[in-house]
Structure formats: structure tokens, C-alpha cells
Amino acid sequence: EPMGAYLSSSAAATAAASSAESGNPLNSGIPRTHRRVLIAIDESLGAQKAFDFWSGVARSQDDSILLVNAVEVPNVPTGLLLSPTGSFDYSEYQKQTQPLLERAQRLKANMMAKCEQRKLRCKFITEVGSPATAVLDAAKTFSASVIVVGCCGHKNHLLGSVSNYILQHSCRPVVIVPRFD
Fold first, then answer.
1. Which of 76, 84, 119, 165 makes an SS bond possible with 132, Cβ 3.0 to 4.6 Å?
2. Where is the UspA domain (predicted)?
């Protein structure tokens, strides 16, 4: 390469990666960069399309993928207001939350099987709370490079409420995958 030649940052990164891979001792200690990708996941078609989209992205096998599922459990104060006696009944609360947690476990098993089949490095976490805030909190906690979310809005709306909230409040890049063809 001639002295003073200009190399763009992407060309420099490519050159560094190829020389590191070829065994150049000057670059052997440089770690290969990878993305930390957070995918908001639930049982919806939009979330499944978001997962399918990202797992088809070039080099997604190099990514660390965090699948975040948010479970909205009944609120205790709301349950007290709706209770005829006005007292907290733990067994009733557990009866309402147990099916939600079981669905989350089935979703985890299904998604981890897909990750294994596609040779993706995935971790699945279930957060309790509203989906939008759970996704944003997890993105911050796990230092996500990008957030991928499906759009479950109706055809006459551009975005769904969760994807819109994430887009408006995220400090990270957000990829919104529409569910419509």
C-alpha cells in the first residue's frame, strides 16, 4: 500500500480482521468485534418475524443474541381493588400468574430450540413488567448494540404501541420488522 493512502474505517476494519485471521502477529491480540443483539420476543407473529429476520442477517451466527420476553402479571393493588373482600388472596394471585409463567417457559423452550437449530448464540430471559420498559431496561443492563422488535400494529397504523415506545425512548439503534408482507 502506498504511503499516505487513505483507508476508510470499514476498509481498515476489514483489513485488520483479515490480517488477524491470517495469523499476522501484529494483529493477533485484537478481538473480533461482535454485536450484542436484543430481540423482543413473545408469541406474536410480529416477534417471530423479527427473530426470523435477524437470524437471516449476514453473520448473525457471530452475534450474542438476547431474547427478552416480558410477562405482565396482575398488579397486586389492582387485584385488591377487584377483590370482593378487599384482601389479598395469594392463591388467587398465583392461579392468575401461573399460566403466564408456564407460557413463558414453553416460549423459551421453543425459541432456544430454534437458536440451536440455526447455530445462534442465544440467551433467553423473562422479565416481569410492561414489554416496552422491560426491553429498554434489558438493553441497558446487557449493553445491547441494537434492539430488534416486531411491529404488531394494525395495517392502518405505522407502528404498534410497544415498538413505537421503544423507538421513541431508546438510546440504541432499533430495527423494527413489520409483520405484513
1. 165
2. 35-178
Helical pair 131-141 and 161-169, crossing angle rounded to 10 deg: 40
* Residue ranges of domains in the chain: 33-74+104-177
Please, is 25 exposed, middle or buried when counting C-beta atoms within 10 Å of its C-beta (0-12, 13-18, 19+)? Answer: exposed
Question: Cα–chain-centroid distance for residue 89?
Answer: 34
**Fold of the domain spanning 33-74+104-177:** Rossmann fold (3.40.50)
Predicted confidence (pLDDT) per residue in 108-166, tens digit: 999 999 999 999 999 999 998 899 999 999 999 999 999 999 987 555 455 678 888 99
Find where cell 430454534 sits. Answer: 114
Confidence of residue 33 (pLDDT cuts 50, 70, 90): low
